[in-house]
Amino acid sequence: MKVCKFEKIKDEDEMKQVINCIQKEHPYVAVVPILAQLQEWLQAISISWFHEEDEVSHTTVNAIEAYCCTLANHLITDSHLNQEIKNRILECIKKIHILVEDKADLLIDKMIKAEIYGLSSDLFTYCLRQQGLRAQTLDTGKLIQINLERKPDIPYIQESIQQYIDENRNVDIFIAPLSICRNVYGEIDFMSEQRNDYYATVLATLFKADEILLSTPINHIYANRNCLREQHSLTYIEAEQLINSGVHLLYADCITLAARSNIVIRLTDTHDLSTERLYISSHDTGNSVKAILSQDSATFVRFTSLNVLPGYLFMGKILEVINKYQINVISMASSNVSISMMLTASRDTLRIIQRELHKYAEMVMDENMSVIHIIGSLHWERTQVESHIMDTIKDIPVSLISYGGSDHCFTLSVHTTDKNRLISSLSRQFFERQCAA
């Protein structure tokens, strides 16, 4: 069984692309976001409503009605289904008009938001019904409950989900609105948008899926997309180590939850739903290089000892200050007199660190740096891989190399101006040659 999650659907054309992908993938649950235009109008309603500009709010609600009816006319040509969805639109719009009349309140604002999220999902449901599928919108506002830590209470809701599935065995596909849930007080609520992938992974766990397709912005990932899946397949451990090192891939708990339930994760880009970019599972294909990930907006920092502290205390002092300000260290190298790091931190934070350490170290910074992570089975005994990497980068200035801390990652730090040249060289070395072979 499969779950698919889509993100950032801007217009009617992208809506059609998602529908085509759903028909191709045949998921049991499709998790869809609110359409971008509806999201903009939702924000406008909240602003005008809290400023007590009721007339402006009602005008925006009418614009939502007209927009949804236009989409229905374009996408749902069956007269019976067209009339049904228009009745649903009218019902939703009436509720929102009534809610807007109430005094501004955060709970009512969430209720308005939930109505429009549900309406956006209903449009997909009726589009799929027109394609002959028995589709139904999943009422996640009643089924998904979060605990005091604002995480889904999986054991608590597992039973209700199973009962819901048993009552709807004739349904081919459920359409779930993204992020809607219910809090511990029984009120309608939403999970953070930063956890969209996690929300979908929770649904995959609850529905006991064996595979989840996540559409997410991943234009910083480079993999061998023209050959066998094994050549862009990561293990849960490799993916988890990447995330823990600060690389934006998925919300960290996605990997933990998927690994616990043995759910395969497939990643596609939001702009190319048909091409699988990464495949994450428990199986290690053993390929030497599986993917290359880039990370921008990093800073190279070298701390050179002023010989005030002995080496072991100098190292401890540096790490103490880094920990104090919760700085993300991407990679690090050290000698008996200096420590070099690739960091992600604001200029203000770096200035504070410099002030705190000025008695102990000279601090040199280089901004506008990029970090390239080469991912795969890279154990130190595989000298051929190491030599190929070093041969590839011989003509490119490299500020820092981190190798040996993990059997799955070889990290290079370069100026951002050299990033594309380095990625192109690595791609030719490890991906194009694999295809040729």
TrEMBL record:
Keywords: Kinase, Transferase. One of its GO terms (cellular component) is cytosol. InterPro entries: AceGlu_kinase-like_sf, ACT-like_dom_sf, Asp/Glu/Uridylate_kinase. SUPFAM superfamilies: ACT-like, Carbamate kinase-like. The keyword Kinase applies. It catalyses: L-aspartate + ATP = 4-phospho-L-aspartate + ADP. GO terms for biological process: homoserine biosynthetic process; lysine biosynthetic process via diaminopimelate. GO terms for molecular function: aspartate kinase activity. Its EC number is 2.7.2.4. Residues 73-268 form the Aspartate/glutamate/uridylate kinase domain. It comes from the Bacteria. Belongs to the aspartokinase family. This is Aspartate kinase. It comes from Bacteroides ovatus (strain ATCC 8483 / DSM 1896 / JCM 5824 / BCRC 10623 / CCUG 4943 / NCTC 11153).
